[in-house]
Amino acid sequence: MKATAELVSMGTITVQLGERIEVGKGPKGTRLVVDVASIEVESDRVRASLAATDAADWLTLSEDGSIGCVDVRFTLKTDDGAYIYVEYTGRADMTSGLIATAPTFQTSDERYGWLNKIQAVGAGALEGNGRLIYSLYEVVITAA
To answer: Could you tell me the residue ranges of all domains in the chain?
Structure first.
């Protein structure tokens, strides 16, 4: 059996980045901790915003600073009161501001249980004002 993948649009995530702390160079590269000031998720199935101050990007930069290894975690609260934990890793092209991520979700709220089953892909672009906008897609796998 062979499998194929299709990307199905899920909506957008808008992130406002905050303070940036440079931890320094370590065995994995230069570590930056970037605070996330706000998050808004808009889609046909979910509307949510940042629920707590637990959001950050633990970014590691390559030796020359051109590639960033993204490591992000945060908790959302939906407009109807559900909590959704989100985490993703990915790669950032630090010269162009383009970012590819692979978000996953966790929730115990039955209304959003479908999120627990999916793998998502985010295509992001960093704007000059510290605003990051992701187009979010569900990866739908089917047998071919």
So the answer is: 3-143
Which top CATH class is 3-143?
mainly beta
Count of all residues that appear for the chain in the document: 144
The distance in angstroms from the start CA to the end CA of the chain is 7
Q: Along the chain (144 residues), what's the average pLDDT of each consecutive run of 10 residues?
A: 96 95 89 94 96 88 95 97 97 97 98 97 94 97 93
- Write the single-letter amino acid at 59: L
- At residue 73, the 3 state secondary structure works out as strand
CA dist 128 → 17, 72, 122, 124, 133 (Å):
11, 20, 19, 13, 12
- For residue 133, count other CB atoms closer than 10 A to its CB: 15
Q: Which residues pair with 23 in a beta bridge?
A: none
- Among 19, 11, 13, which Cα is nearest to 53's? 19
| CA dist., res. 18 & res. 98, Å (int) | 18
Is the CB of residue 50 less than 8 Å from the CB of residue 79? no
pTM over 0.85: yes
